[in-house]
Amino acid sequence: MAAGALLLVFAAQAVAGMLPLSATWDEITHLPSGYTYLKTGEIALNRQHPPLVKLLCALPLLALHPRADFLDPNLLETPGYEWIYGSAFLYRNDADRLLFWGRLPVVALGTLLGLYVFLWAGALFGPAAGVLALALYAFCPSFLAHTHLVTMDVGLACFATMAFYHLWRGQSLAAGAALGAALATKFSALAFVPAAAVLACMAPGRGRRLATLLLSAAAVVYLAYLLPTDPGFYAKGVEALHRDHQPGFQHYMLGEFKERFWSYFAVALLVKTPLPTLLAIATAAVLAVRGAWRGLQDEAFLLLPAALFFAVTTVLADDLGVRYVLPVLVLLLIFAGRVGPWLLEGRARLALGALLLVWLVWGTLRIAPDHLAYFNELAGGPANGWKVLDDSNIDWGQDLKRLKPWMDAHGVEEISLLYTGNASPEYHGIRYRVVPQEEFRGAPRPGWYAVSVQALIRGRHWERTRGWHTDWMTRYRPAGRIGYSIYLFRFPAGTSAPL
User: Fold this and answer.
1) Core-most of 115, 219, 225, 489, by most CB within 10 Å?
2) At what angle do helices 27-40 and 95-125 cross, to 10 degrees?
């Protein structure tokens, strides 16, 4: 009963949270690409990401019959064309309607992941552990944020968790199918293959189990790619993985800009995970060290994949968001479930657990629908998140849709816009003028400005590295904000300081 209620609450939060959001950065490519796969049978656009989640998200669109140009020669021939094609596809149709139906399959995957969190934690540590782990998951802002977007991260966490759960249960065929689904969702799932192989060899019949695991995984990948004739289809996708990335790009953390922060994903987990959840994970670790281990083999199915995936992601992935380590976080939530039975051992512990749960629920509910921009108290809350991390941790272009209602409410007919997302202002009815870079560097014109926090953070970088006067967050006081990703400035006539 409690598990069912928590899953419903999670799904309801995810659906409600997606309604105010405009298209985020990657959704512009993922949803249209998936639709072209279904209609043409060709995996052409957006090859740098495997197709499975894109296919699942595009399935509801078959009933909507959106307009699309499948005869465009650039579909198969022009690298990077998915951004142009995707924008045209969405905004020549009813983009909000397409996004609503396209996001629902990810909500289903996120809810399925919650079920596996409950099942695995409960099987390991008892019913109370299952409920606690699911509660931590159901009110985790990072999972809520990415469960209502047409992106791959929740799908990867879901399929990877399924794979290792079924492997732990000795169900090699189901584990292999889920591992194949993970590999057909993100190329980073390759980091799970060595862990799965090691764990498959930890029980009798290891040769047969390993063969079943790998063959079933390969079969699912082949099916997800729509039965390709090119034997090198997957390797070519891996080669295209970093096609959109800029060499030498300076990533951002804690006010600094570097090509690589080795502590990035550790910091991201620390500031993007609610403090009650971090306390539960830490308590679980203490209980484990003090002798509450269920058994080395059982613990290995949680900790080995988490450790290996975290290490590989730290070394190889770009420093762009906590979403890259969601598979690690979900395994830690299952691990934290062991605290559930411990909390039931006395009134004081039960009261402590209730207090932490209220803290968790309140902190998550009050940030809605801005789950993407959640930061815990260690970071100073979401209003200070821009001082700690950028990109998909806070600004993925998600708030443009909410700018027009603000303009209407404040009588602003036209706004100066410096927006770093790729949603369409015209589609959302926003009258605007584009802020040229030289104006961002010089004295702003009188009037209202709406500036993406990503641009504001990059402005700080340009001021430090190029001597440009572009650090608006230091020079000016914002007059308001839309969510946590668009800041509003008002410049009166005859002054360089905003009201």
Assistant:
1) 489
2) 100
Structure tokens at 234: 């997957």
pLDDT below 50 — which residues of the chain? 498-499
With a threshold of 0.85, does the pTM exceed it? yes
- Residue spans of the domains in the chain: they are 2-330, 399-491
Query: Which tokens hold the place of 291?
Result: 């002798």
Are 88 and 67 spatial neighbours (Cβ–Cβ below 8 Å)? Answer: no
All residues at 6 or more sequence positions from 471 whose CB lies less than 8 Å from its CB, including other chains: 459, 460, 463, 464
Average pLDDT of the chain?
93
What is the tens place of the pLDDT at every residue in 231-275?
Answer: 999 999 898 887 767 778 899 999 999 999 999 999 999 999 999
Buried b (16+ CB within 10 A) or exposed e, 348-385: eeeeebeebbebbbebbeebebbbbbbbbeebeebeeb
Q: What are phi and psi of 433, to 5 degrees?
A: -125, 140
